[in-house]
């Protein structure tokens, strides 16, 4: 599976480098191609930088790590190329001050992306963990795996995302259909408030405790 990282900011760079380290072939793209080249260089062997269209056409699974407001304008010209692609929505429709969501309750950012690009399979994941955790390339805290929730409407797409999460070492938990992104996106705000406002720092994560099935 070849993974494309759309956006070369902190989250995209950290995830791409980690995925390269565990053996995936990764391609980066960015509005500024120099940033994509830098991300690929830092990620090491197995990582490349591509123009957006070439990345979309050549990768099986695409991580959306752009700010939410930039996703539709960025992907709109590539609608046909998105057919049968898996879009992993890492984003949150968050306000500029990072204190609220711009939508919720009756819809979610992930659902809006799916409505705009029905040709693709959208899966919500990676949205409620700080980039610093990804940069440390460690999915455990205090010897307990961080729970990573994922949600989507197509089982095959969710299974591919689950395989990726497990390979990175996360406790991968299926959170149900894509509409449950309405609950996962507010979880990102709690993570931000705990880490940045209440002083717990960026190396935190959630853990779902449960009895074995």
How is this structure best summarized?
It contains eight helices and ten strands.
Overall description:
There is one protein chain. With 213 residues, the chain is α/β, with parallel strands linked by helices. The chain has one domain (2-197): NAD(P)-binding Rossmann-like Domain (Rossmann fold), CATH 3.40.50. It is 39% helix and 18% strand. The chain has 8 helices and 10 strands. It has helices at residues 10-21, 33-43, 52-58, 68-75, 109-116, 131-136, 155-168, 181-197; strands spanning 2-6, 25-29, 47-49, 61-64, 86-89, 121-124, 140-141, 144-145, 147-152, 171-174. Strands 3-2-1-4-5-6-9-10 form an 8-stranded mixed β-sheet, sandwiched between helices. Strands 7-8 form a two-stranded antiparallel ribbon.
């Amino acid at each position: 599976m070849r993974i494309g990282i759309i956006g070369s900011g902190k989250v995209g760079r950290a995830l791409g480098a980690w995925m390269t380290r565990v053996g995936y072939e990764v391609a980066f793209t960015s509005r500024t191609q120099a940033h994509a080249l830098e991300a690929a260089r830092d990620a090491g062997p197995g990582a490349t930088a591509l123009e957006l269209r070439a990345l979309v056409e050549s990768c099986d699974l695409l991580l959306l790590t752009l700010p939410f407001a930039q996703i539709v304008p960025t992907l709109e010209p590539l609608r046909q190329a998105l057919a049968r692609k898996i879009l992993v929505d890492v984003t949150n429709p968050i306000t500029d001050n990072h204190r609220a969501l711009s939508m919720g309750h009756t819809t979610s950012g992930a659902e809006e992306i799916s409505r705009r690009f029905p040709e693709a399979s959208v899966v919500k994941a990676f949205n409620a963990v700080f980039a610093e955790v990804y940069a440390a390339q460690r999915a455990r805290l205090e010897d307990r795996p961080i729970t990573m929730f994922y949600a989507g409407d197509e089982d095959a797409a969710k299974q591919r995302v689950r395989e990726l999460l497990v390979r990175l070492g996360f406790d991968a938990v299926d959170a149900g259909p894509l509409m449950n992104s309405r609950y996962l996106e507010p979880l990102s705000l709690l993570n931000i408030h705990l880490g940045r406002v209440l002083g717990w720092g960026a190396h935190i994560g959630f853990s779902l405790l449960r009895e074995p099935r």
